[in-house]
Design a protein that fits this description.
By secondary structure, this protein is an alpha/beta fold. Helix content is 29%, strand content 20%.
Length: 162
């Protein structure tokens, strides 16, 4: 059995006028990311690998989660193509995950992460909120089977819920 957490980056600073890729978190995002990391840890989710878009807002969010799990930034697997990834990219990234990892957290962006989540289980979301965490159990021991494996919804948490 594998578990997957799909996490949208925390709220970004829309007052930043530079390139979107370099956009930092909003002060509220700096509050929400560690809060959601602690909430996820409290669910006894033992994350083996952290995969993140290389965009600043995604990496910053991933860093908060990694820190909650006593990991460092260098433990985060940075994947350029998770920046504004489309559905096929999510499948490509997930099916390439090393099978030594049983529970993986992926940090990415809207609209792709919402579109991808909508395909996975009957539990629907309208839009993945900033720092939302959507968790699944995948009934396989091999990530290459992800696309066809039976998937079970575990939970959906987001900051405004708390």
């Amino acid at each position: 059995m594998k578990q997957l957490l799909l996490i949208r980056h925390a709220k970004s600073n829309m007052n930043f006028w530079g390139d979107d890729f370099e956009r930092p978190l909003h002060p509220q995002g700096e509050i929400d990311a560690p809060l959601m990391a602690k909430k996820t840890l409290a669910r006894n989710m033992s994350i083996d690998a952290f995969l993140s878009s290389t965009a600043v807002k995604a990496m910053t969010t991933a860093n908060y989660f990694a820190a909650a799990y006593n990991k460092k930034e260098q433990d985060i697997i940075q994947i350029d193509k998770l920046y504004h990834a489309e559905i096929d990219t999510f499948f490509e990234v997930i099916t390439a995950i090393d099978n030594v990892f049983n529970t993986v957290a992926i940090f990415s962006h809207n609209p792709g992460i919402t579109d991808f989540i909508r395909l996975l289980t009957p539990v629907r979301i309208v839009s993945m909120p900033p720092c939302g965490v959507y968790a699944l159990k995948i009934n396989t021991d091999d990530w290459t089977n992800f696309k066809t494996a039976n998937k079970e919804f575990l939970f959906f948490d987001y900051p405004k819920e708390f």
